[in-house]
Give the backbone structure.
Amino acid sequence: MNRRAFLTSTAAAGLAVPAIARAQERVVSLYSSRHYDADRQLHSAFTDSTGIRVRVIEANADQLLERIRSEGTNSPADVIITVDASRLARAAELGLTQPYASATIDSRVPAALRDPDGQWFAASTRARVLMYDKAKGAPAGLSRYEDLAKEQFRGQIAVRSSGNGYNVALASSFLAANGAEATEAWARGIAANLARPPAGGDRDQIRAMMAGQGTIAISNTYYLGLMSISNQAEERELAPRVGIIFPNQGDRGTHVNVSGAALAKNSPNVDNARVFLEFLTTPAAQRVFALGNMEFPAVAEAEVHPFLASYGDFKKEAPDGAKMLANAPEALRLMQRAGWR
Ligand code: FE
């Protein structure tokens, strides 16, 4: 069939495709470090509404960035998706991104959740908070991250290892606010206050605390949210019994981090990539982040899941990716020197 005949027959079959898509393969390649079931839902919703196929390369953020770097100008990566603003900042610093250049995204995502140079933006956020057993009540004297080091909390804290990215990001923000000496003393206090040796993920800390190992668990909000909609009855029953303290409401705000996306420097499908990036900020996609993965949507008008909304609104510290990236190595060194394994 010659080209004219093919076009005529597809048009006749009602399969007319937009001009941009005809110029490129109808596919977008995502290099993603997100590990959530909701993302598959997101990708099929995207394909359903645009006809653009989604190809996903999943690995941890450092591996993805290294892979893109070694692929160089031949990299098939169109979109880079990671959690942690410092990883997005690192991708930009390594020259692996290019400006996403979308007025649509800039009009939907608040400036505090976008890179000032337009190299990446957040699609969702999560807060790192302190959790307690409602039946026992909120621990007295605990309203700031700084309080976690107090001697009164000996043997009370369940938290994962210091090397975990969520803790490195928290300590980086603490370092920016309080300086190196205070950060080391704080980490030493936390190490002394552990209820158990760090093991497992955030959900394990919540379960341990609710089972009586300590009275304080440090966790990202979405993990508690996911427990509340779990297909295991035990987790669904546990979640509403957990209380949340949003730290530092009287000063810098609670530490939040982002999950976001960037346009890859050598994207072979730039137009499809931009369609995908803009899709992330649509009401349909924001709903998947919020209701499917229990994150806070980046778009202000988007709905927060009622379970998380029931804990009330709170003051958030703006996530500064560049500063978090700059502080991360020192933050990790201080935590490890302090004996927080
Ligand atoms: Fe996670």
The domain at 3-125+258-309 is CATH 3.40.190.10 (D-Maltodextrin-Binding Protein; domain 2). The mean pLDDT is 93. The first strand starts at residue 27 and ends at 32. The chain has two domains: 3-125+258-309, 126-255+315-337.
